[in-house]
Amino acid sequence: MGDVSIFLQHMTNGVSLGSLYALIAIGYTMVYGILRLINFAHGDIFMLGVYLTYYGVTYTSLPWWLVFLLAPLLTGIIGILLERVAYKPLRGSARITILISAIGASFLLQNLGIVIFGGRPRAFPVPQMLNHVVRVGGVSINFVTFIIPAVTILLLLGLTYFTTKTKTGLAMRALSKDYETASLMGIDINRIISITFFMGSFLAAIGGILWGSRYPQLMPLMGSMPGLKSFIAAVVGGIGNITGAVIGGFILGLGEIMLVAFLPRLSGYRDAFAFVLLIIILLVKPSGLMGDKVTEKV
Amino acid sequence: MLRIENLVMRFGGVVACNDFSAEIKKGQIVGLIGPNGAGKTTIFNVVTGVYKPTSGQILFNPTGDQQHRLTGLSPDKIAQLGVCRTFQNIRLFGELTVLENVFIGNHLRVKSDVFSTVLRLPHYAAEEKRMYEKSLYLLEKIGLQDTRNEKATSLPYGMQRRLEIARALATDPKLLLLDEPAAGMNPQETQDLIQFIREIKEEFDLTIFLIEHHMDVIMEISEKIYVLDHGILIAEGNPSEIQQNQKVVEAYLGVG
C-alpha cells in the first residue's frame, strides 16, 4: 500500500513537471517550425512572464486570477516585440546569424532582469487556493500539482483546435512547409510569425506562473535551466512537431522525478539526466521521436 | 491589366533580365518563351514580389482607375490585388490534404479575424461554409473531389499541376501567371490542359501570362508572345510573326 501511494505521488509530480516542460517546449517547437530558428531567448521570456505576474500581484490591487491572465497576454506582446527587434531585421540572412542574435537576446534579457528586478531572489505570491494541500490515501499532494496537468491539457486541446481548424492555424502549417509559396498565396507572413511568437510566449508565461506556484522562488536567471530542458524536450520529441514537444516534455519530467525517487544516490545528477537523454537521442534518432524525416532536395 | 516598364534585375554581376518591357491587356493570354536560363521565371518572380527589381517598374491595372504599382509591394499584398501564380517545379503544401491546399488559397479573401474564428461567430461559420463550397467546386472542376482528403503529394504528377492551378484560382486572381504548366505532360495531357486553361479563362474572367516550352501550347493559345534570350527581349508579336522571326530561330537553334 505504502509503496503504491508513494509511486503515485512520484507519478503526479513527474506528470506535473512534465506538463511545465511541455508548455515551454511548445514555444520552441512552434518558432522552429516556422522560422527554423532555435529561439534561445524563450527561457527568458518565461522568466519575464513570472516577474510580470509577481509585480502584478504584489503591486497592483487587481485580483490574482486577472493578473494570471493579463501577465501572459503581456508576455505574448513582449514575444512579438522580441521577434520584431532581434529576428525580423535579420530575416533572410544566414541561419547562424539569427541564432547568435537569439543568444544575444537571451543574455540581454537576463541581464536586464538583474538590473531591473535585482539579483536577490523573491518569493512568488502563490494564491491561497493553489497552495492548499490535499490528502489522497496516505500521501499529501499540493493542489497545484493537479492544476498544472489540467491547465496544460486544456491549453493543448485549444492549441490543437487552433492549428487544425482555424484558417490562421492552416496558414501556420502552410508557412512551416513553404514560406515563399505561402506568401504568394496571399498569406501575410509577418502576421503569422507574430501570432506564433505571441502564442509561444503566452504558453511560456502560463508555464512560468505554474512553475512559480510550485517552486516559488524568482530569480532573473531562473529561465535558463527550464528553458534548456524544454529545448531538449522539443528536440527529443522532434523539433517542429507540437505533439512531439509535449511527449518530450513528459518523458523529461517523469524521467527526472523517477531518477531522483528511485536512485536517490544519483539525485545530484538530476539536471544531467536531460543532457544524457539529449545525447542519446541525437545519436540514435536525430530527428526526434515524432520528427519528420529529413530528405535532401536534389 | 499589367504593364512592365524597363525592368532590370541584376544578381551581383549577372544580369538576369535587362530592360524588359511588356504590356498585357485584360482578357488576353500572353506567352513568354525563350531558351533555358533566359530569365523567364525571374520575370515572374519580380511580378509576384519575390524579387525586388534593380530598376524599372511594374503597374497593375495601368489604364484603370485602380492603378497599383507592384514593384516594392510584398508578395502577399500583390496576391491580394489579384495576381497569383503556379510554379515550374510543383510547390504544393505536401503535408496538407488536397482540400486544405485549395483552402489556403481562399485565405486572403476571408474577412473574419481571429476572435470570430475562435468564437465561431455566425458570420464566420457562413463564410467558412462558402469557402468550403468554393474549394469543393474548384476541386470538382479539376476532377479531384474524391481525393480531397488525401495528402497532396500522393497525387499523380499531372494532377498535382492541376491542383496548383486550383489553389491559385482560389485566391480569386484577375491575372494568373502559369510557369510551365505543361512541363512533363504527354501530348494527350497537354491537349487537355489547353482546353482547361481556355475554360477557366472564360469562367473566371482571367488574364493569363504563361511561360511554356511546349511550342504547340504557346502557339495555340497565346494571342501575343514575348521572346527572351539571355535576359533581353529579342522579339514580340503574334504566333505567326514569332514563328517567322529570324532572331527567334537563331536563339533556339543557334546561329548556323
Question: Any overview of this molecule?
Answer:
The complex is a heterodimer of chains A (298) and B (256). The mean pLDDT of chain A is 90. Chain A has a two-stranded antiparallel sheet with strand order 1-4. Chain A starts with a helix and ends in a 14-residue tail after the last helix. The longest helix of chain A is centred in the first third of the chain and has 34 residues, at 2-35. In chain A, helix 1 packs parallel to helix 6. In chain A, a hairpin with a 2-residue loop joins strand 2 (133-136) and strand 3 (139-142). Chain A has helices spanning 2-35, 42-59, 64-87, 95-117, 128-131, 143-165, 167-177, 179-184, 189-214, 224-237, 242-262, 270-284; strands at 122-123, 133-136, 139-142, 217-218. Chain A has one domain (3-284): ABC transporter involved in vitamin B12 uptake, BtuC (Orthogonal Bundle). Chain A is mostly helical and 298 residues long. Chain B is of the alpha/beta class. Chain B has ten helices and ten strands. In chain B, the strands form two sheets. Chain B has a six-stranded mixed sheet, with helices on both faces. In chain B, a hairpin with a 2-residue loop joins strand 9 and strand 10 (232-237). In chain B, helix 3 packs across helix 5, helix 3 runs parallel beside helix 6 and helix 5 (122-141) runs antiparallel to helix 6. The model of chain B has no long low-confidence stretch (mean pLDDT 87). The A-B interface holds A 162, 166-168, 170-171, 173-174, 177-178, 180-189, 195 and B 48-50, 74-76, 79-80, 84-85, 87, 91, 93-96, 100, 103-108, 110, 112, 114, 117-118, 167-168, 171.
